[in-house]
Amino acid sequence: MDDIDLEENTEEQFVEDSSYQACFIFRAGGTRKVGKERPAKKRRLNGTALASQSFPKLSQHGDSDGLAQRRWELFDHLWRSHKSDAAQDEVDEDSLTQLTSFLVDASNASQRQKLSTALLLTGLDIANYESVLRRFSTESPRLGKSVLIDLQTRMCPNLQTALKNLIKGVIVGHSGVDVYNDYLARHKRLLPLNFDLELLEQFLSDHPISQVTVSLSDAETFDSHVMNELVHTLCLWQDRIPFTLMLGITSTRELFEHRISKSCLKRMEARTFNFAPRSHLISDLLSGEQGSEEPAPQIFLDSTVMSVLSDVNQMHGKSAQSLNSMKQYLYMSHFFANPVASLAQTDITSLDGEDQKHLARAVRNTDSFKVFCENLLAEKDQTSNARVRRLLNDDRALLQEVKDRVQEGQTACDASRRVIRSFAGLCCALLREDLRRPNFKLEIEIQLSRAMYDLTNTEAYDEAVGRIQDLLPTTLLQILKGLPAEIGSTLNLSEVVNALQSQLHHELIPNGSTSHDTSALVADANGDGVSALAPPTPSKRGKTARLRTSTSQVAKKGTTIDSPAKADLLVVLKHKLQTSSLDVSSLLLHEAYLLSSRTTRFKPSFEPHPRAAIERALLRHSDYLGWHRGRENSESDGSDTEDDHERSTQQSNTMPPASTLFTLLQEAPTIINVRDLFDAFRSRLEPAKEMNGAAHDENDEADLKADMTQFYRALAELKMMGLVKSSTGTQVKRATRGRNAKSGTQDIDFVAKTSWAGL
Amino acid sequence: MYQEGDLSDGRDMNKSSKMPLAKKRKAQAVASEIDMSEDQDELDPSLRTLAEDALADTIEVTAREDTALETPSKRGRGRPKGARNKRTPTPDGDIPPEERYFFQTRVGPANQQPTSTNSFSALGLLTHDEYLAESRKYKDPHELEMRYLLKLHGRAFPQWQFELDQDFSICLYGWGSKRQLVTNFAEYLCHQAAKKNAPHPKIVVINGYAHKLNVRHVLNTIATALHADPDEEDPAPVRLVGQPQDILDTLLTRLNNTPFRIHLLINSIDHVSSPFRTTANQALLARLSAHPMINTLMTCDTPTLNSIFPSNIRDQYSLLFHDATTFAAYDTETNVVDDVNELLGRKGRRVGGSQGVSFVLKSLPENARNLYRLLLSEILTILNDDETGGIPEPEDEFIDPSLLDATATPRKQNGRSQAAEDIGIEYRTLYQKASEEFICSSDMNFRFLLKEFHDHQMLTTRKDASGTEMLGVPLDRGEMENVLEELVL
């Protein structure tokens, strides 16, 4: 950390002039030029402000610039390839198509009496509506020359402001801010009011805009009066300006209709579009490092990380953007200060000798390397011992071994994760729980990832096996055939499906029809698929009835027919899961490519607990202030006497004034007499004074003022924190049992505490 | 005279109820005999004692019944008076978790006694000067450790810079002033730029605790930084016009064309006087921070910081939170004496009392002084009217002044001084009077003068129950009279 040279005596340099300014441009003390007589000479600057970035050097700055730069480049490359921008903007494509068509029809319609309104049911996730808007704006070429303007509640406190923002949004969205300002200035004489829609009408007459779509993203939070007026105004102007309305609704259409007036409803020609929240949001986000299209993913998320992400999503309703940010932060944390992270994808042969030395030293300090060596030594043979010795002494040999092991580990991880992901997909198809539990797939993935040694020793596997045994063979066949090709190929299900299909074919249709006909009829018999909705043709009707009868007979027979096929399926699944079981944490140098919450505490960075932090600082100040002295003592050469140590310990135990006062408040009731509080506070200061050798005299005026100063400061700080507040008359009356009002002889001061200590 | 059946009433709860029934009946019979005959010597002594007890019981029961007949329900239902104070106090320890909340948020002390009536003001409250003098003398015993803590936080500067470069915003929280830490970080950024021979970074520092802070000022300062040369010492201020939203739109457009990042370092964004506590301003700042050329680092002090960052705002910021407990005193962020006075329900002498007001008035133009004179005289008139409303003046020859002194308790006297600060004059009335005296010619001019007073904290405004705007002066009566005297003379 030689980059940060924080000299202790420099900290007062800026206090004198800037601390009471509201807002100012900071000038560094070192570059401040006092009394300069001529302008400074222009320096030659290195490019632009966006200078090339790098990580700090690790190992007490023993790393070379090259290693830090390598880590930075690897992070940059991996994050660019793994970030899931597409997942953030994923919306229901069918609904989007319908919405676009609706708006196209609305723009083409002539002589409209009502305002075309699209009601978008987007759920509680605000980001979902934003995703719809982003996707909609990319679809805008299909809508011709249309402009989309999004108005939010804060932009529409009244009708005039709403119209002004609407006009501005359209013109700025089409031509930019400068054009808007020029346009206003040009028309100021004739149209002095910037909320006059005639401004927009004239603008549209000069520019080829076919449609103005007004989006109210949080329609339910709008003032109903303003909204009624806005709809009424837009309806009146739609013969001159082609308005369409788009309303984002988080609850239901019925609830929204109850909120607005009937006259407003009559002016709208509304249609509902359901943009339900994405169920597999996290799963999709995590697919960046687990996708099948990626040639060789180098970074994997631990089950603990996935579990935290799942919890955060469920408990706090995080948007896709937030989850993506968390994922990015995980990557950042992994590469920022992890010296072995560069092994995830580094050609070691290109490193020079010094870099190899630093890297080898970092590798030897990892836990997995120690375990690896211990396992080798446990074999107790000469070869293993020699191997360990070579790994400890020879940097090049060590790095070569590590490189091979890392590649093997990454491949094994990738294969295991693919199987887990595919099996989770199969479970979703079999159990159909994902309709009820949106994160069901991710839950299964986490469950399987935790079962490191045997994937079959999980609840998900047991449930899947039970479901397979319970299902009718025809239904099972349909499910298996409906799975994505990736799942089938990963779990080797193609042979099982063929066997099941041929078995069914032979058992159900003994007189022989084509395979194609069979599957179609089976689908019809189960009532699945779109074809079941259409009325059967006369020739087909007979076959369907016959097949239904056969199917019911099969169901009555139980498992006699389908047992071999199901047994095959279970054997295949069990074998695949058992061979894919992998304890990632046991792999050598997994620290290079496995992101774990054990090593990266990222949750507090997104979900802070400020109250806990403040209360901890106030109640246990020695956690922050005490250890420094202990460190000094341990670093000293042992010449410290016992007295020095005792004094330093006692001094560390001296509580800051705010801590003292807060401790007293914790013991007090809600309403506290300030005089009593001060007396108690003062009594707590006595030991510290005695320790410092100061004579304490309660009647000493100077002593009283000094104590009162500390008390004032502590009270003001706690007030700023909101931990104490002024008491109300009712509270005081209750606390004093009315004695204060009755006596009337003294002006008694009370404060009320606002927090309680907790359980 | 009562019969045997009356004596065996179940309401009898004294020691006679413990006797065997046969003996008891016999004793009661003897008692009736005693009552009838005066010859007591013929009875067995033990039986006589019992008989006397039974007689006493009989009399007591009779008395109770008589009372009941005469005053059937005087006490009424519910707990008898004083019973509340007789309850045993809740013990401090071993309280079950479900009861702990109620114990910790109890109104009075644990022993259910009313709080004491000790007066804090009897000690003599601190003035600004006293506080400043004493605080200068104070030496924090943890100074070295706090400095080391600050240095320890400084080790995270490269990490913070990396996070800002990755388009995250940072929020520092925890106990202690983080102003010095933020300044150190700004120094670090400059130091790093100088090391790389890069241009001086553009850093705008915003102090959320400053009373004069407003959003326009912030946006205009950012615009100034945007247009200034990186190494320029005193750039010419840029003034963007319009509503804050318009200014922000203009600013964002210009930010698209700049190659330089601007670092916003915001101290105490959640301070009670910070304009960024409101949702509208927070949305504005979040929109600005979402721009890739803006890096935002802010500090929060209160434990309720989560409430000012709704999820959508947080997404726009891409906020990362770091615990940066420093234990440094909030010297700049708090106005200690005023805050404590406000907490105790006393108005602070914000401008240093009458001397401060006089000092400010000397620097103001003539019409401002006249307006303040008018305001003071009107408030004093109201005060006089109030005081003489029901109580005769001491000069009244029919009233003994000593009687008045006895009736006017210190509490009431203090109440009067409090009332002086609470009294206000209606905005419209003052404007009319000022117009009549040719102090100001228009409402705008009038408001301009009032704003001057308000900026110097010589004027308080509040709305009464009917919603009428009332103007007051944060001085007590004596100080008002002093200032008025100076103004008139």
What is this structure's SSE topology?
The complex is a heterodimer of chains A (759) and B (489).
Chain A: H1 15-18, E1 23-25, H2 65-82, H3 85-88, H4 93-108, E2 115-121, H5 126-138, E3 146-151, H6 159-175, H7 177-186, H8 197-206, E4 211-216, H9 224-237, E5 243-249, H10 253-259, H11 262-266, E6 268-274, H12 281-286, E7 300-301, H13 303-316, H14 320-336, H15 353-364, H16 367-378, H17 382-393, H18 395-431, H19 440-450, H20 459-470, H21 473-482, H22 485-491, H23 494-508, H24 515-525, H25 538-557, H26 563-580, E8 594-595, H27 603-606, H28 610-619, H29 622-625, H30 627-635, H31 642-653, H32 657-667, E9 671-673, H33 674-691, H34 701-721, E10 724-726, H35 729-736, H36 739-743, E11 750-753
Parallel strand pairs in A: 2-5, 2-6, 3-4, 4-5, 7-8
Antiparallel strand pairs in A: 9-11, 10-11
Helix pairs in contact in A: 2-14, 6-7, 6-8, 13-19, 15-18, 17-18, 18-19, 18-20, 18-22, 21-23, 23-26, 24-25, 32-33, 32-34
Chain B: H1 4-7, H2 21-36, H3 45-70, H4 97-104, H5 128-137, H6 143-154, H7 157-165, E1 169-173, H8 179-195, E2 202-207, H9 215-227, H10 244-255, E3 262-267, H11 279-289, E4 294-299, H12 311-317, E5 319-323, H13 336-343, H14 353-363, H15 366-388, H16 401-407, H17 410-422, E6 424-426, H18 427-436, H19 443-455, E7 460-463, E8 469-472, H20 477-488
Parallel strand pairs in B: 1-4, 1-5, 2-3, 3-4
Antiparallel strand pairs in B: 6-8, 7-8
Helix pairs in contact in B: 2-3, 9-10, 11-12, 14-20, 15-19, 15-20
Q: What report would you give on this structure?
A:
The complex is a heterodimer of chains A (759) and B (489). Chain A is α/β, with parallel strands linked by helices and 759 residues long. In chain A, the strands form three sheets. In chain A, strands 3-4-5-2-6 form a five-stranded parallel sheet, with helices on both faces. Chain A has a three-stranded antiparallel sheet with strand order 9-11-10. A two-stranded parallel ribbon of chain A has the order 7-8. The two termini of chain A are 41 Å apart. The N terminus of chain A is likely disordered. Chain B is an alpha/beta fold. Helices cover 49% and strands 8% of the residues of chain B. In chain B, the strands form two sheets. A five-stranded parallel sheet of chain B has the order 2-3-4-1-5, sandwiched between helices. In chain B, strands 6-8-7 form a three-stranded antiparallel sheet. In chain B, strand 7 and strand 8 form a beta hairpin. The radius of gyration of chain B is 38 Å and the shape is globular. The N and C termini of chain B lie far apart (94 Å). Strand 1 of chain A pairs antiparallel with strand 2 of chain B.
